[in-house]
Specification:
about 200 residues, mainly beta, 2 domains, 16 strands
Length: about 200
């Protein structure tokens, strides 16, 4: 059974669309328009409030009656039977890899997310200062690059490689992790006379 379809625009006739937001507030601008088909044969149009990026995707799970909607980087898990999302998270999701084993693997500007029709399954500690790109999945090994604005050498190496074992969640490298641990503690203490540099 078809669960949904993307619309180019909100319908100009028929029943009023339903605002779908992360906080259940009204949203009157045109967002990401999706028509949902309920099991009783009726349908409704959701107007999804977008996040802050240009990533718009829909992942229907027909056999499970759930849909993952990514509206401008904001992730919604929703059932066509209800106009309220089951779960929302993220706001700056920029890249997605689809995997049969792990579900959907996404990155925002700082971290990695693993999620599917049931919602968020894992959210990594911070990996990047402000930017992740070039995600690649090989088996359980996820690799990518993280932006490093703190580089004070002449190498101009602004992008630092990182990798994650998606089974163990072990993370190697990444620009943020050069200076801070997973709990946000500094890896190295500056001498007191360099605090103001």
């Amino acid at each position: 059974m078809k669960l949904c379809e993307e619309l180019k625009h909100l319908p100009t006739y028929g029943p009023m669309y339903v605002s779908v937001t992360e906080d259940r507030s009204d949203y009157f601008s045109e967002g990401y328009a999706i028509r949902f088909f309920k099991s009783d044969g009726s349908d409704w149009v959701g107007n999804f409030k977008p996040g802050w990026t240009d990533l718009y995707k829909v992942y229907p799970y027909e056999n499970l009656g759930r849909v993952v909607v990514i509206a401008g980087g904001l992730v919604y898990i929703i059932s066509p039977e209800s106009t309220q999302p089951i779960e929302t998270f993220g706001i700056t999701m920029r890249e997605i890899i689809e995997s049969k084993k792990y579900g959907l693997i996404g990155s925002d500007d700082t971290s990695i997310f693993i999620f599917d029709y049931n919602g968020l399954r894992w959210h990594s500690p911070r990996i990047s200062w402000d930017g992740i790109r070039n995600l690649h999945l090989s088996g359980a090994h996820l690799s990518g690059q993280s932006y490093n604005p703190m580089n004070d050498t002449n190498s101009f190496d602004e992008w630092i490689d990182f990798s994650i074992n998606l089974d163990s969640h072990n993370i190697s490298d990444g620009s943020y992790r050069l200076d801070f641990t997973d709990d946000g503690s500094p890896r190295y203490k500056k001498p007191w006379w360099r605090f103001w540099e």
